[in-house]
Amino acid sequence: MPWPLPREFMLKRMLAADANCDGRFITGVTSTGIYCLPSCRARKPRPENVVFYPAQLQARAAGLRPCLRCRPDDHAAGLDPHERLVEQLIAGVDLARVRHVADLAAQAGVGSSKLRALFQTHLHTTPADWLAMQRVRAARARLLGSGQTAANIAFEVGFESLSAFGEQFRRWNAMTPQAYRRLPSGTFTLRLPDDYPLEAMLRDLGRDHTGTTVRVQGDTCQAGLRLPSGPRSVRVAFTGTQALVQVDGPVPLNAEDAGPLHEQVLGLLGLKHAPARFEAQLGADPALAALIEGRRGLRVPLVPDLFDGVVWAVLGQQVTFVAACTLRHRLTVLAGTLLAGSLYAPATPQAVLTLSVDELRGLGLTVARAQLLRHFAGQVASGELILEQLATGTAARATRTLLALPGVGPWTANYLLLRVLGFQDSAPVGDSGLIRGLQRFFGLPQRPGPREAGALMARFAPHRSLATFHLWQHASLEPS
Q1: DSSP H/E element including 52
Q2: Which side of the chain, N or C, has fewer Cβ within a 10 Å radius?
Q3: HTH araC/xylS-type domain: which residues (predicted)?
C-alpha cells in the first residue's frame, strides 16, 4: 500500500500496537513532542493529538524527538529486535499486574525459556531476579518516602505474602524493611552472607596504595562518598557476620542521602550479586572448579561513585594499576573534596571540567586521556550521558553508548560494565591481568591472544564478570 496510508488504517494499527506496521509509518504525538513506532506499548494518545509520518526523518523535521520506550531510531538502524523487545518490556512493567515471570513472558509474547535467554543475554540476570529487584526498589522508595506500613507497601508493589517480601528485601538489601526505614539516622547494620570472605574483600578494598578515597585498617574501612547533599566520610566496621555503617561528622544525615548511601555501600562491599550460581556452575566442571578453591564467596566490589568509576577506567588505560592509582590520587587531591583525616571524596564531573587539558597533562595524563576525561565529564555534567540509565538498561546499549565516545575502546567499555555499572557477564578480554590469569590458570605455554582469551572466557558465561575477578586474584598470586 503506497504512502500516504489511510489515516483510519494507521490509527487502528497504532491502537493495536501492531509490530507488523513498524517501518511502514511513524506515529507523531503533538501533545508530548515525541514520535513512536506503531507497536509502542506506551499509553496511546488521543487521535486528535496524532500526526503520522512516513519515517522518523520527517518526524524529526517536524520538531519531534524519539520515544525512549520503543526507540524508533534503533528500529530504523536495524538494531537487534530482541534487544528492543527487552527494552520495551522493562520500561513498561506494571508491578501490580505482572505477578509472575509467566505474566512477564506473556506481555513480551514469548515463552518462559525464551524470556530467560533474552534476559540473560541483554540484562545479565534472570527474569525472576529482575522482577524481584524491581519490586524491592519500588518498596525502598515507599519506605523512605511515605508513612505507609511495610505490609501495605509489600502488597502494593506486587509481593503475594509478607514472608516473600521480607525474604527478598533482606536478600537484595542485607537488612530488613524496618531497618531500611531507619536509614536516615546515619547508622545502620548490614547482614553479611555466611560465606563472605572478609579477608579477601578487605584486601581488594585496600588495593589502592594511596588510600585517597578508601582506606582499610584492620577490620574497618573508611570511605569518602559523594551523596546528594554533599561529600561525607563513612566508616564500615566488620564484626562477625555484620558490617556496622556509620556516617562520620557532627552534621546529621540528610533524608535524601539515605537511599544513595545504602546503595553505594552495598556496591562497595560487593553485596549486590551473590556468587552461588557461578560457584555451582564451576563446581560441576572439574576443569574449572579449581578457580574457586579457597576463594568461595568472593564477590565483585563496585566503584561506589559512577563518575569516579569513569575516572578509574580512563586513567587505567594502558598503564599499570599502581600508575593508575597515582594519577587518580593527583586528580582527586586537585579536584576532589578534602574530608577529615586527609581522606577525599571523589571529584565531580563539574570539578574536572574546571581543569584544562594542560592542567591534566601536568598531573601526568596524556593529551588523549585528558581530552577523554574532559569529554566524559562534559557528557555527564550536561545530562547527555546518564550513567544510572546505562546501569539499569541493556548491556548492548551501554556498550554502544560508551564505544560511541571518542577514545573509548573495548577495554574501557567492558571495565565500566564490570566494575562500575555492575553487569554480571562482561570481561575486558584484552586486560593484561586477565590474560595473565588465564595463562596461569589454564597452564598455557604462552599468553593467549584475543580470540583464544575470548573462547576461554566463554566457558564462564553467564558469569564472566565474577570469573574475571577470580582470574585477577589468581594472576596476583606468586608463582609456586
Answers
A1: strand 50-53
A2: C
A3: 83-183
Contact 27, 72 (CB under 8 A): no
Q: Pairing between strand 34-36 and 230-239?
A: unpaired
Angle between helices 127-145 and 101-108 (to 10 degrees): 110
Nearest to 81 by CA among 403, 374, 394, 461: 394
Q: Are 50 and 8 in contact (CB under 8 A)?
A: no
Residue 314 lies in a domain: yes
CA distance 200 to 215: 15
The reply to whether 460 and 321 lie within a common domain is yes
Residue with cell 543475554: 121
* Max CA separation in the chain (angstroms): 76
CA–CA gap between residue 212 and residue 253 (Å, rounded): 23
Look at the alpha carbons of 40, 41, 45, 46 in this order and tell me if their dihedral is positive or negative. positive
Whether residues 313 and 449 share a domain: the answer is: yes
**Global pTM value:** 0.82
**Cell numbers describing residue 132:** 524481584
Q: What is the pLDDT along the chain (480 residues), one digit of tens a residue?
A: 456 788 999 999 999 888 888 888 999 999 999 999 999 988 899 999 999 999 888 999 999 999 988 889 888 777 778 888 898 889 878 888 898 999 999 988 899 999 999 999 999 999 999 999 999 999 999 999 888 999 999 999 999 999 999 999 999 999 999 999 999 998 999 999 999 999 999 999 999 999 999 999 999 999 999 999 999 999 999 998 999 999 998 778 888 999 999 999 999 999 999 999 999 999 999 999 999 998 899 999 999 999 999 999 999 998 889 999 999 999 999 999 999 889 999 999 999 999 999 999 999 999 999 999 999 999 999 999 999 999 999 999 999 999 989 889 999 999 999 999 999 999 999 898 999 999 999 999 999 998 999 999 999 999 999 999 999 987 775 332
Domain count, the chain: 3
CA angle 233, 235, 239 (to 5 degrees): 175
Q: State the alpha helices, DSSP H only, in 123-242.
A: 127-145, 150-156, 162-173, 177-181, 198-205
Q: In this structure, are 230 and 370 located in the same domain?
A: no
Q: Say if 120 falls within a structural domain.
A: no
Tell me the residue range of the domain where 329 lies: 306-475
Q: Is residue 450 part of a domain?
A: yes
Half-sphere exposure of 242 (CA within 13 A, CB side): 8
Angle at 153 between CA 149 and CA 158, to 5 degrees: 155
Contact between residue 307 and residue 349 where contact means Cβ atoms under 8 Å apart: yes
In three-state secondary structure terms, 243 is strand
CATH of the domain at 261: 3.30.310.20
